[in-house]
Amino acid sequence: MPLLRGSVLPSLVKLGLTQNQALAYQALCQHGPQSANQLAKQLDILPNACYRLAKDLERSNLITISNSHPQVFTAINPSIALTSFIQKHQTDLDKLQTLAVNELAFKPPTSETQVDFLEHKNLFFNTYVKLANKAQEEILIISIGESVTDDILIANRDAIERGVSIKMIAHKYDHENQQLLKNHLKMGLLVRHFPDWGFHLVVVDQKHTLLSVNNPKQTDERIGFHISSLGFTKAMRDYFYSVWEKAQPIN
């Protein structure tokens, strides 16, 4: 007589067995060793499905399968089999817990500071392009207000299209660079003027700072630094905005 689905022991399902696996193991425990055909009749399923169930139960160390023909399925004593089954699942759960904790664990930002020396103007510009291409939030610039390379213009355009805010403070604003700064405005940069001289500052995403000083008589002569430091970059960002508040908008 087939076992009724409702007769499956809830405790077996709660341990992690499917309903069919629980019914099969329960039948073998209660009625002794059986062939696939015998077990199939009890479970009211096809014999082929019984073989698949038996393989699953064997992998879980709940039953044994004989080498005879036809094969005979025998339940391992529940006091032994279920204890082993629970221990294996607990081991698997412990591994998953460790994996989940490691993946979700808070990793505080590194406090290490890295400083790279940028020995000439082109290297400074190239480093800017690399940082601008990776920027996600904002780029803050204090500059003389000079012409820049096409690579920088393209990097700025692409950053703005990604939603990055670019603010620029130009030290110089006169007939020589007026059109240049207005072109920056047309591209989408926010530009202001504050009279000063002799240095360039770039802050990217509150993570990176580019800083250079130049020869006032020959502005192409400059040395620069790429500084990766959260503390220093925060200070430079605060400095930028203190100047931004005093600078005059360019329209």
How many beta-strand segments?
Answer: 11
Q: Roughly what is the average pLDDT, rounded to an integer?
A: 86
Can you tell me the CATH architecture of the largest domain? 2-Layer Sandwich
Return the CATH topology of the largest domain: Endonuclease, Chain A
What does this structure look like?
47% of the residues lie in helices and 23% in strands. It is α+β, with helices and mostly antiparallel strands and 251 residues long. The chain has two domains: 5-103, Winged helix-like DNA-binding domain superfamily/Winged helix DNA-binding domain (Arc Repressor Mutant, subunit A), CATH 1.10.10; 114-249, 2-Layer Sandwich (Endonuclease, Chain A). The strands form two sheets. It has an eight-stranded mixed β-sheet, sandwiched between helices. A three-stranded antiparallel β-sheet has the order 1-3-2. Strand 9 (208-215) and strand 10 (218-228) form a beta hairpin. The longest helix has 27 residues, at 78-104.
Give a brief rundown of this model.
The protein is an alpha+beta fold and 251 residues long. It has two domains: 99 residues, Arc Repressor Mutant, subunit A (Orthogonal Bundle), CATH 1.10.10; 136 residues, Endonuclease Chain A (Endonuclease, Chain A, 2-Layer Sandwich). It is built from nine helices and eleven strands.
